[in-house]
Structures are given as structure tokens and as C-alpha cells.
Design a protein that fits this description.
41% of the residues lie in helices and 21% in strands. It has 238 residues and is α/β, with parallel strands linked by helices. The chain has one domain (5-17, 43-197, 216-236): Vaccinia Virus protein VP39 (Rossmann fold), CATH 3.40.50.150. Strands 3-2-1-4-5-7-6 form a seven-stranded mixed beta sheet, with helices on both faces. Helix 2 packs across helix 3 (24-40) and helix 3 crosses helix 10 (209-222). The radius of gyration is 16 Å and the shape is globular. The two termini are 27 Å apart. The mean pLDDT is 93.
Amino acid sequence: MGDSSVEHQIAGAYQIDALLRGWRFQRAWHRARLDLVAHLLPPDPGARVLDAASGSGIVTWRFRAPHIVSADMRVSGGQAVRAHTPGARAVAATLDALPFPTGTFDQLYLFEAIEHLSRDEGRRALSELRRVARPGAHALFTTPNYRSYWVVLERVIDALRLTPPMADAQHLLAYDGGSLRDAVESTGWRLERLGSFNLIAPFVGMLSWRAGARAVGLEVDHARRAGALLFALCAAEP
């Protein structure tokens, strides 16, 4: 699932490198995702937390909670997690076969992953996340918004070869607000909030980390579906 040759060529430490050492816009882009978590669903100290398709585990890096489990299909991703956070919990796993008992987690994250999957694969992944979530657990999902400037941004980044290729390579499915809603509601999740971010936040964040974080908060409340990334805050149906 989601095992294209392009994705296997991406280093396990890609996300943490992009966050800390990438070009300025890239750093602000990845930081905004963490600002979204802080604004909508920060890891609860008493919760069991899963960061699925975690890559190098920037959620673990940012929040430093020992109860966060990072799961990624790349062994090198888990190695990167443990390199920046010694003692962190990381496992190698695909999204359709998570190695956890039913009803394990209280909070779950899946960031910019379902667009890497076909429609059926994406729904299997969301269903598997629902399986390992306890009833009433909360999840935060994000994906590019293909009814926003993301379409142009993706093509420009690919043309300049600033990241591993995305369009027609990593990204298999183009989501908008309606299709994201359909995906989560058809897989046992109750949608609590649907919106967008990264409208202006990455540009503001290039100038000031704090201003970028404030911009994310404003976008969550006011951007509706204009931002380059969609978010879905969901609860697991009983």
C-alpha cells in the first residue's frame, strides 16, 4: 500500500530535515502542520497516541511525549525518530495492517498520506485507523486541497525539482472538501470539523515562527476551504 518506487527513494529523515534544514518556505510549511496539531488536537499527556505514516516523526520531535507511537512503512523512518528523540516508540508498519489491538489509541494523526493511495487503499487505511482507535477517540487527518493554489504549487515545485516528484508520482488521488468528507464518514469516523490551512501561514511563517502559528489559528477558524491543505478533525463512532 502506497509503495511507489518514488516513495521508497525518500529518505526516512526527510520530514525532520525539511522542518529544520529545508529552504525557508519548506521549513514554514512543515512547521504549520505542527501548529495545526497544537491548535486542534495536541497530544494529551494521558492519551495513547498514534502518528501513522509518520515518516521521521516530527510530531514526536515537537511534543516530546513518550506515549506517542510513530508508525511508518520505512524502517529508516523509525531510525530517524529514535535519532532525534532517543527512547521514542517507533514501529515499521503499513497503513492497512497496523500491528496494534483493536481499540488501542485515544488520539490519532495521519498527515498528507491518503493522497498517496488509491481510493480503495485510502478507505482501507482510514478503516484500519478506526479499528485501532477506541470508541470516542479523536483523529486529525490532512491532505492537499486540489481546489486551491496547491495545484499550481505542486506543479511549480515538481518543475523546479525542489522535493521528490509529487504529481503523477507520489500523489495518486486529488481530494477536495467533499471527497475528504465522504472518505472519513464512510469509514467509521464522525466528522467534527472540516477546514483548511496553509493559505498565507507558510508565507508569514517565513518571517516569524510566532506569526506563522497565529496565522494557522486564524486560518483554522476562518479560511474555510481556501487553504492549500485540508484538515478533518474526527471522532471514532462507537
